[in-house]
Design goal:
Number of helices of chain B: 7
Radius of gyration of chain A: 18 Å
Shape of chain B: globular
Order of helices and strands of chain B: HHHHHHH
Helix content of chain B: over 70%
Radius of gyration of chain B: 20 Å
Oligomer: heterotrimer
Largest sheet of chain A: none
Number of helices of chain A: 9
Chains: A mainly alpha (221), B mainly alpha (219), C alpha/beta (246)
Strand content of chain A: under 5%
Helix content of chain A: over 70%
Low-confidence stretches of chain A: none
Low-confidence stretches of chain B: 163-169
């Protein structure tokens, strides 16, 4: 547990000092929203356009990928990854620390992007703000759990940053379906379907446990 | 083994040819005898890949990695076969090549996962690192299979496939050729798997010999 | 699943037992089957030309990589990789430091990773011991190579490991800094640790180590202890085996 807190503290401190991840994630997410908005057929959208929740989550996924790639880039400098690999506890705690840091940054990006999205797409997220935050968080946990695991892998392959979306996207379908359906439910009827929430929770659980156990091997030479 | 395969294929072919034509679809439906068994083989392949990966991580023994590589490749072949025969049949039978049937979608996702797996292997430093990364990804991928099924259900996929394989659901006289086809396909899978394993073993040895015979670096 | 990392016994240094140790990277055999036995408390230098496998060997000893074949026992016989990692202090080619953090923060972080009781106090203690007291709160990115190396050594010592593994620590240091480092290593060894040093500098190796092994193309070519021959003969034999300087 101490290791988790130490890694979380270190990552957040590094981010605060260099301030390169969160701004990049924010700008990229916002730009994605803009582009997606202009991909729609016209200036006037019927209230609550049906495709909107999906587009929002697309923006979230892109922001998450950007953030997680950079999370491991900072470990490659000076071979700091070896320092992490030498902890005398399960390396899964390192994973949790990094995932927690990623989660925090992603959550911040999600809130900001959500507000921006509400304005551009004319959807009413604010009225369901509290439950939507819950859904966003559930989705973000899954994104960061899977993404941090694969970022740890992809950063040591030949194409580094490009590898993460390649690895992540095929395995993201359940998360996307659950998150988008839950969001659509909130916007439409005011409640997220229990099935969608269940799917998200199961996905999160599966990846948190699997990544914790597998991370031991990811940090090997 | 090869001979057995030949014999089984001949038998399967014979039985399939003699199966009655379907009322609605005529002879076309016989694609089923290739399409469904190919799916079985594909899933078996991915299960073996994940299993090989898990054993490799646990035991650190190269031979499990060879199983990993081989079953991923062979599984991909059968998965491709399934993905290709599906739309061919669908287009001919129902007019649309793609339907949101859960099994088809999940198998398609499996195919994409196989591809990503292959890319991961090629782009990692060869040897222990590629083996380890691929093992991790294979395990993650196999965990997704049940999750994907639930997801597509939620997504609103409408089942076009028969719900189960009990005798009644497929119609009269189908069971025999179906079993024969399945058996033949599984044997084909195993045969190819064994060949691929052998090739992999040879490749590893050849690479080592090549490297040892390379001119010595000036110290 | 989680257990408090038990600090290694400060009194007993660690021994190393390797039998048939091999490491392959795909077709490349970085280490051929290698046998090595190091008694606790020894100071060992590993020398050899580039690409001989010295770094690979060190990484295997540290537990950063798993052997492709063979048996390796570092410290007490313990199947738990986590406990083995607790006893190792490692310095790689790079410093393993975070440039955006200060020296003190780097040390505190490592202390927390290893479950050190009072990381802040320990960091202060190490900064003083390595002559860095005034620089503790400066970011590592601004340090010279020599100073960064000092912090890196301190980092390797945070959890008082009974086994110290150093990969070419003298590289890039000016003669004064290198001398200071050599003295510090001698002190650490005298304090009862097993120290394994990978180095290019033959002079440093023979000055420091009780025992020197030469690695060539993944195998042990020479294994000599200080008592085996008088100092100059010792060094000459090593030079002869190594061939012209790489």
């Amino acid at each position: 547990m101490n290791v988790l807190r130490a890694v979380l503290w270190k990552d957040l401190l590094s981010e605060w000092r260099s301030r390169d991840r969160l701004p990049a994630m924010l700008v990229f997410a916002l730009l994605t929203v803009v582009v997606l908005r202009f991909s729609q057929p016209g200036a006037s959208l019927a209230g609550n356009p049906p495709g909107a929740p999906g587009l929002l989550w697309v923006a979230y996924v892109f922001a998450a990928v950007l953030g997680m790639n950079r999370a491991f880039a900072l470990e490659l400098e000076n071979e700091a990854l070896a320092g992490l690999a030498l902890v005398p506890v399960d390396r899964g705690w390192i994973f949790l620390g990094k995932a927690a840091a990623n989660l925090l940054l992603l959550a911040l990006a999600q809130v900001t992007t959500g507000l921006f999205f509400e304005i551009l797409f004319d959807v009413d997220l604010l009225s369901v703000a509290a439950p939507f935050l819950g859904v966003a968080l559930l989705g973000a946990v899954g994104l960061t759990a899977a993404g941090t695991l694969f970022a740890g892998i992809s950063v040591r392959t030949r194409y580094r940053e490009v590898m993460l979306p390649l690895l992540l996207f095929p395995l993201l379908v359940p998360l996307l379906v659950g998150a988008v359906q839950a969001t659509a439910g909130l916007l439409g009827e005011g409640r997220a379907g229990p099935a969608a929430l269940q799917l998200l929770a199961v996905y999160d659980g599966v990846f948190l446990i699997a990544s914790f156990l597998l991370f031991e091997y990811v940090l090997d030479e | 083994m090869g001979f057995l395969l030949l014999a089984l294929t001949a038998l399967a072919g014979f039985v399939i040819l003699r199966a009655p034509a379907d009322v609605v679809q005529g002879v076309l439906y016989k694609i089923l005898f290739v399409h469904a068994p190919a799916a079985f083989a594909a899933y078996l392949g991915f299960l073996l890949t994940a299993l090989g990966g898990a054993l490799y991580l646990w035991r650190n023994d190269e031979k499990w990695d060879r199983l990993d590589v081989a079953s991923a490749e062979v599984g991909l072949v059968f998965c491709t076969l399934n993905i290709v025969t599906g739309p061919i049949w669908a287009k001919a039978a129902w007019g649309k090549p793609w339907v949101w049937d859960p099994r088809l979608v999940v198998t398609a996702l499996l195919w994409v996962t196989y591809l990503a797996y292959g890319l991961l292997r090629s782009f990692s430093e060869p040897g222990a690192r590629a083996a380890r990364f691929a093992a991790v990804y294979g395990i993650a991928g196999v965990l997704l299979i049940p999750l994907n099924y639930f997801a597509i259900d939620l997504f609103g996929g409408r089942a076009q496939h028969p719900e189960n394989l009990q005798r009644g659901s497929l119609g009269v006289g189908i069971a025999g050729p179906f079993l024969a086809g399945t058996l033949a396909m599984l044997v084909a899978f195993l045969y190819l798997l064994m060949l691929r394993l052998e090739i992999q073993g040879l490749r590893v040895r050849r690479d080592r010999v090549d490297h040892e015979n390379a001119p010595e670096d000036p110290a | 699943m989680w257990h408090r990392p038990r600090g290694p016994d400060r009194v007993s240094a660690w021994a190393i037992e390797a039998e048939g140790l091999e490491k392959r990277f795909g077709p490349i055999a970085a280490l051929q089957p290698l046998d090595l036995s190091v008694r606790a408390g020894t100071s060992l230098a590993v020398v050899g030309p580039n690409g001989a496998g010295k770094t690979t060997l060190l990484r295997l000893l540290a537990g950063l990589a798993r052997p492709s074949a063979g048996r390796l026992q570092v410290g007490p016989a313990d199947p738990d990789r986590r406990r083995r990692r607790a006893g190792v202090g490692y310095l790689g080619h790079a410093t393993l430091l975070y440039p955006a953090l200060s020296a003190r923060e780097n040390l505190v972080f490592t202390g927390r990773l290893h479950g050190v009781a009072d990381p802040d106090a320990r960091a202060a203690e190490l900064l003083e011991a390595h002559g860095l007291t005034g620089f503790g709160d400066r970011r590592v990115s601004g340090f010279s190579r020599g100073m960064a190396q000092r912090v890196a050594i301190a980092r390797a010592l945070v959890h008082e490991p009974p086994l110290l593994l150093l990969d070419e620590p003298f590289t890039g240091l000016d003669p004064d800094a290198a001398d200071a480092l050599a003295a510090r290593l001698a002190g650490l060894h005298a304090g009862g640790r097993t120290v394994v040093l990978v180095t290019h500098g033959l002079g440093r190796a023979t000055a420091f180590a009780e025992r020197v092994v030469v690695l060539r193309r993944g195998t042990l070519a020479v294994d000599m202890a200080r008592g085996d021959a008088e100092p100059r003969a010792f060094e000459q034999t090593l030079r002869a085996t190594l061939g012209p300087p790489s």
